[in-house]
Amino acid sequence: MGFLSHLQNVFNMKADAALNAAENPGQVFDYSYTKQLEQLQQLRRAIADVVTNEKHIEMLEAQVEAQANRLQAQAAQALQAGREDLARVALQRKAALAAQTDAYKQQIAQLAAQQAHLEQVEQQVAQRIETFRTQKEMVKAQYQAAEAQVHVTESVQAFRRR
Question: Which among 5, 91, 96, 155 would be 20 to 30 A from 161, CA to CA?
Answer without folding.
Answer: 5
